Request: fold
Amino acid sequence: MTSLDELFTAESAILQDNRELAETQGLEAEVYRDALIKLTAHYQKIMNESYRLIRRSDRAERDLNQLNERLAYEATHDPLTQVFNRSAIIDQITKALNTGEAGLILLDIDHFKAINDQYGHPAGDAVICGLIRRIEQSVPDLGSIGRVGGEEFTILLPRYTKAQSVIVAGYIHALLNASPLDLLPNQLVTASLGVSWGKQNSSFDTLYNDADTAMYEAKRRGRNRVHCG
Ligand SMILES: Nc1nc2c(ncn2[C@@H]2O[C@H](COP(=O)(O)OP(=O)(O)OP(=O)(O)O)[C@@H](O)[C@H]2O)c(=O)[nH]1
Reply:
């Protein structure tokens, strides 16, 4: 490892000279004055350099914090829609059930394969995003949206009763039927919604399976509807 003296060769030499001068008596005042001027200049240089290093390390810390935030965001969000990814929403559902009752809506886009087949996969992607942006308007502040599969999403409603969760699902359903998405102005993109509810400390699996069963029942009954298990 580099020693302190190696790092600051010039400064070490000046320090040594000045130590020796300080121990030497009877020299001309000019000699002490010159040494002091030299020492002051180096002291100033070191202060400037320290300030530059502090700023650089502040910048590096800021960059690192931003990188950490971005990595944390990417680890928990779906890259296409920016809603929570599967593992993040499962985590949130589990936490919500640990702290209170919760409602869960499982939403599956209707006949999405036909949209892909007709307009192509990239257009299908844009439809998924358009639909999510639309339903975000109807999800309350407490709630959160997660993507659990290709065209399957959950809306977690912490502290919501069953009746309140059904109202939110009904609102989402109405919003999708109110008008077509900008991307597909000539056809409605609808979804089937299954609603379930769990009391505090109930299991994630039961809540999710109940919503899944309800969603399939909504599909079976003709799609574009809400079913509550
Ligand atoms: N564009 C796009 N398509 C996806 C994505 N993930 C899944 N899909 C497609 O979604 C379609 C789902 O089709 P199905 O499971 O048959 O269901 P569906 O056509 O929506 O019919 P129902 O659910 O029965 O109403 C498949 O064609 C998948 O390829 C995605 O990220 N982007």
